[in-house]
Amino acid sequence: MSGHTIAITGANRGIGLELVRLFIARGDHVIGLCRRAGDDLPATGAEVIDDVNVTSSDELRAAARRIGDRHINILVNVAGILTSEDFDGLGDPEASDRILRQYEVNALGPLLATHAFAGHLATGSKVALITSRMGSIADNDSGGQYGYRMSKAALNAAGKSLSLDLTARRIAVGIFHPGFVRTEMTGYNGQLEPAESAGLLAERIDELELDNAGRFLHANGEVLPW
Ligand SMILES: NC(=O)c1ccc[n+]([C@@H]2O[C@H](COP(=O)([O-])OP(=O)(O)OC[C@H]3O[C@@H](n4cnc5c(N)ncnc54)[C@H](OP(=O)(O)O)[C@@H]3O)[C@@H](O)[C@H]2O)c1
Prior knowledge:
This protein is an alpha/beta fold and 226 residues long. The chain contains six helices and seven strands.
């Protein structure tokens, strides 16, 4: 598939930047949404829209205005943050702030972004939410990581509702874990290079249809438990 218009949040680095590169290489027009572009994103040939903090409805609406009357075939919500909060540190007010910030960026951000760009989506459009396996309650066998786990579980809940609401408009929503990927977020630890993860995510996005929407999938295609 090529010739699509694809909007990606968190496009400035990591998995988002590799998705930009992958779709550009396929011949798509990519709109890279970011807070402030470094050198790498403009070098891809993407259309860059900056000043887009996903927690700001105003900035998201301004970005939507810059897209004008163009149609978005695929919206990929990638932007996210990770901090660590263990049980013993929960009395620290800064831990509460970090938990709330992750909720804002990881759960509320993709929901606000999907709403802000909804006017550009139409029958046949797709929305991908890049979540984490750490948002799975059933799969949690190591505890801790309160803010990240809570924020991604909340994103999964939002993704299910979005899927039901947008299916009525013939728009398919998928909820995807990218794998354990070597990016700044993980201190460059992980099992996959960002480009490998982007390749697997693109396969899941290609497969995404109304008939299989609303599922929580690993980038490798495995169905993950909620
Ligand atoms: N890496 C993994 O192993 C892994 C595993 C599971 C899930 N994920 C998820 O995959 C997604 C991408 O992660 P990554 O590993 O590529 O991380 P990354 O390299 O840290 O990149 C995160 C991206 O999100 C952007 N971002 C952060 N806060 C934002 C905000 N408030 N508004 C707009 N953009 C914001 C960053 O923008 P700036 O460039 O401006 O900082 C950056 O482009 C995240 O949702 C993450 O939770 C990653």
